[in-house]
TrEMBL record:
Cell inner membrane keyword on record: no
Sorted UniProt keywords: Glycosyltransferase, Transferase
Coiled coil: none
InterPro entries, per the entry: Glyco_trans_4-like_N
Pfam families per UniProt: Glyco_trans_1_4, Glyco_transf_4
Matches recorded under CDD domains: GT4_GT28_WabH-like (cd03811)
Residue ranges annotated for the Glycosyltransferase subfamily 4-like N-terminal domain, each copy included: 14-173
Gene source species: Pseudomonas izuensis
Name assigned to this protein: Glycosyltransferase
C-alpha cells in the first residue's frame, strides 16, 4: 500500500476538482492510502469524495499564503507521491515541497490548454503563477502530468517546458461499470416530459465554453420546435439570457444552473453539444459519449480531436462558427437513424476509473497494478 497525497485549492464545481475527487477514490480502490489536501477548503464536489479518502483543509485565505502550512504538513506526513493540480496550486506545491525536502516526490498536473488558460483569470497573483510555472517545470525532477496529448504539446510549444518535462495521464471520468449503470430520471422538466427535441450542453458559463456561439447557432436552426438547456453556473448567465432574448429564442432556452448528475440529463436529450473555444480533456464530452447520446464538438485546442478520433466518432466543427455548428446540429436532429451509438460508448471506455488510474500510478510511482 502506497501513501499518496492530492493537493487542490478546494473542491469547487470545476472539472479539475471533480476529476481529482474521482481519482482519489480510484486510487483507494487500487489499494492505496489516499489523502486529499485543500489549501482553503470545502466545495460542492466534497459530497462526491469517497469516505475512505482522508481530508485535510489548511483554511488559507489565499493559495499563496498556504506555503508555510503546506511545507510543515509535508515535513510531518511523508508520502510516497504527492500530486498537485492547477497551475497556481502547482506553484504553491513546488515551493512547499522545496522547503520541506520532498520535491523528489512531488508531481504537478496541467488540466487545460496552458497558452489559452493563462489569460482567463485576471488576478495578478494567478497571472504571476502562470508566468513562473514553466520555468519551475524545467527545474523540478518529475515531469508535468498533462490530461491529453494536446495539452502536453501546447505546454512544450508555447512555454519553456521541454518534451522530457511532460507526460500524459487520462482523466478518470467514468465508473468501471458505466455500461451497466442505470441512470436516474433527468431533473429538468423539458427532459422528463419531452414535447419536442432537446439539445443539452454542460459547463461553466464562461467565455471558454463558447455558449454564446451555441445560442447563436441554436437561433439559426431551421427546426423551430427544439429546446436548448445549458447546465452550469458562471458569471455570463445574464449575458447569455440577454442574447437569447435578443435572438428571439428565450422561451426555448434555459440555464438552470449546476447539475450533480450531467449524464442523467444528457442521456435523455436528443443531442449534446460541446461549443468550447479551448479545452484540456473535456470531461463533459466523455460523459456524453458514455450515455450513447449523439454529440457534436468544436475542433478546439486540444481535447475533442483526441477523444473523437479526429471526427471518426462524432462530428467536429470549427470554433466560433455558428453557421457550421447550426448545420451540424440540424443534420443530427434530422437523421433518421443512428449507427454510431456503440462507437461513442466504446470511445468513452478509455476514461474508466480502472484504466485511468493505471496511467496515474505509472506517472506517480513508475508502476501500476496488473
Amino acid at each position: 500500500m502506497k501513501k499518496l497525497l492530492i493537493i487542490l485549492h478546494d473542491l469547487g464545481a470545476g472539472g479539475a476538482e471533480k476529476m481529482m475527487t474521482r481519482l482519489a477514490g480510484a486510487l483507494v480502490d487500487a489499494g492505496n492510502d489516499v489523502t486529499l489536501l485543500m489549501l482553503t477548503g470545502g466545495g460542492i464536489n466534497a459530497a462526491g469524495l469517497d469516505p475512505r479518502v482522508k481530508q485535510v483543509e489548511l483554511h488559507s485565505g489565499r493559495s499563496a499564503n498556504a506555503v508555510p502550512a503546506l511545507a510543515q504538513f509535508l515535513r510531518h506526513n511523508r508520502f510516497d507521491a504527492q500530486l498537485a493540480a492547477l497551475t497556481h496550486v502547482n506553484v504553491v506545491a513546488i515551493a512547499a515541497a522545496a522547503l520541506s525536502g520532498t520535491l523528489s516526490r512531488l508531481h504537478v498536473s496541467e488540466r487545460n490548454a496552458f497558452s489559452h488558460d493563462k489569460y482567463v483569470n485576471p488576478s495578478l497573483r494567478v497571472r504571476l503563477a502562470y508566468w513562473v510555472a514553466p520555468l519551475l517545470y524545467r527545474l523540478i525532477p518529475n515531469p508535468v502530468i498533462c490530461v491529453s496529448r494536446g495539452v502536453a504539446e501546447d505546454l512544450v510549444q508555447t512555454t519553456l517546458a521541454r518534451r522530457r518535462d511532460v507526460t500524459i495521464a487520462d482523466n478518470p471520468v467514468l465508473d468501471n461499470d458505466f455500461r451497466e449503470r442505470l441512470l436516474p430520471a433527468p431533473e429538468h422538466h423539458w427532459l422528463r416530459v419531452k414535447t419536442m427535441p432537446v439539445i443539452v450542453a454542460v459547463g461553466r458559463l464562461a467565455h471558454q465554453k463558447g455558449f454564446d456561439t451555441l445560442i447563436d447557432a441554436f437561433a439559426r436552426l431551421p427546426q423551430r420546435t427544439v429546446r436548448l438547456i445549458i447546465f452550469g453556473d458562471g458569471t455570463l448567465r445574464a449575458q447569455l439570457l440577454d442574447q437569447a432574448r435578443a435572438l428571439g429564442v428565450a422561451d426555448r432556452v434555459d440555464l438552470p444552473g449546476y447539475t450533480p448528475d450531467p449524464m442523467a440529463q444528457v442521456a435523455a436529450a436528443d443531442c449534446f453539444v460541446l461549443s468550447s473555444r479551448f479545452e484540456g480533456s473535456p470531461n463533459a464530452l466523455v460523459e456524453a459519449l458514455a450515455t450513447g447520446t449523439p454529440v457534436i464538438a468544436t475542433r478546439c485546442p486540444h481535447g475533442p480531436q483526441d477523444i473523437l478520433d479526429d471526427g471518426a466518432v462524432a462530428p467536429l466543427v470549427a470554433v466560433d462558427d455558428p453557421a457550421a455548428l447550426a448545420q451540424a446540429i440540424s443534420d443530427q436532429l434530422s437523421a433518421t437513424s443512428d449507427t454510431r451509438r456503440q462507437t461513442r460508448i466504446d470511445a468513452a471506455a478509455r476514461f474508466m476509473n480502472a484504466r485511468a488510474v493505471k496511467t496515474y500510478l505509472n506517472a506517480l510511482l513508475g508502476s501500476a497494478p496488473p
